[in-house]
Amino acid sequence: MKIHTLLPPLLGLAVAGIALFAGAAQAPPSASEGATLPRAAEAPPAAPAVPAAPASAPARSVEVDPSLPLYSPVSGVTGNLNSIGSDTLNNLLTLWAEGFRQRYPNVNIQVEGKGSSTAPVALIEGTAQLGPMSREMKNSEIDAFERKFGYKPTEIKVAIDALAVFVHKDNPVEGLSLQQVDAIFSSGRKLGAPADIASWGQLGLTGAWVGRPMSLFGRNSASGTYGFFKEVALGKGDFKRNVKEQPGSSSVVQGVAADLGAIGYSGIGYATASVRAVPLSAGPRGEHFAATYENCLSGDYPLARFLYIYVNKRPGQPIDRLTGEFLRFVLSQEGQQIVVKDGYFPMPKTVVDEMLAALN
Fold this sequence. Notes:
By secondary structure, the protein is of the alpha/beta class. The chain contains 11 helices and 13 strands. It has helices at residues 38-41, 90-103, 118-125, 139-149, 178-185, 224-232, 249-257, 293-298, 321-330, 333-341, 349-359, and strands at residues 5-7, 11-13, 79-85, 107-113, 131-133, 154-168, 176-177, 215-219, 244-246, 262-267, 275-277, 280-281, 304-311. Strands 5, 6, 8, 9, 10, 11 and 13 form a 7-stranded mixed β-sheet that branches.
C-alpha cells in the first residue's frame, strides 16, 4: 500500500505522497517492501545543480477534523497492553497511553520503541498486542505472521507524517529535489542525478559554504524510517558508508543541530528550533514544497507517509476489548489532538471511518 492518496491507501495518501482528501476510501493495495511515492519514480533523469525554491506560503495551524467521533469510555476495560515497534511513534504511543490511562486507571501500558522491524516479531511471538510501524509491513513479514496464525495482521493507519530532511537552522539551502537528496545520501544515485553531492557548494551555496562538506545523519536498518527513506528517496539504492546511523529519531535531529554542515532525515514530529526542514520537490525541476499538513494532503510533499499500528485480529471476530478500545481512542478527536500535540498530522474522517470499520 502506498502513502499515496491518503485516501485509498490513505485514501488517498495516494499516489505520490499522500493525497489525502481525494474522496471515498478504497481498498488498500497489497503490501510491498515499503511505501513508494509515484511522483518520485516519474521524475525525469536530469537534475539542475542548484535548487530554485520559491518562497513557501505560511503554514496554517493544524486542526483535527471536528466530525471525528468523540471518545466515550466504556465499562470493564482493564489489563495489560504492550506496544513494541517504531521509534518514530514512541512519543506518540506514550502520550496516547497517558490519555487512555486517565480514562482507565486500571490499565497498565508498556511502550518499547526500538524500530519498526521489531513490531512484526513481537506480534508473532505474542509479546505485544500493538505493533506500531512507520512503514508498511513487508510481504515477508506478513507471510511470517500468516504462517503462524493462518491470516494476515490488521493494519490501522493512525497518523500522517512528513518525513523531513533536516539541516542546521543557519543553513541557507532553499530546497532540494529527491534526485539531489538521493545524490547526497546514496552511493548509486538510482533517481538519475548526474553526479555525487558531498559539499554544500555543489548546491549553489556561496561564501563559507562553498567548500563545507556535508555530514550525513540517518537511522539504523531496524527503523521503518530507514526503510521508507531508502525506498522512496534513494529509489531502493544503498546508503553511503559515511552516513552516521542513529538508534533513534531524536538522535538524528540532535546530530544535525550540533553540526553546521549536517543533513539528516527524521519524522517531522521530532523537529526542534535548532533545525530546519528543507522544502522538497519530487521532480528535478519542480516546485519545492514545505513539509506542511496541506502539502501532505495534496500529495505535493514527496515524503508524506502514514504511521501505522498493526494488530492481531482474527477475521470475522471482534478484536479483544482492551486493544480495540485503545485504538478507538487513538482514532477519536481526543486521540488525534494528541497527534497534533506531538507534531504529526491528524487523519481525515474518511480514513478514520475506514479504520474503525476494519476494527469492527
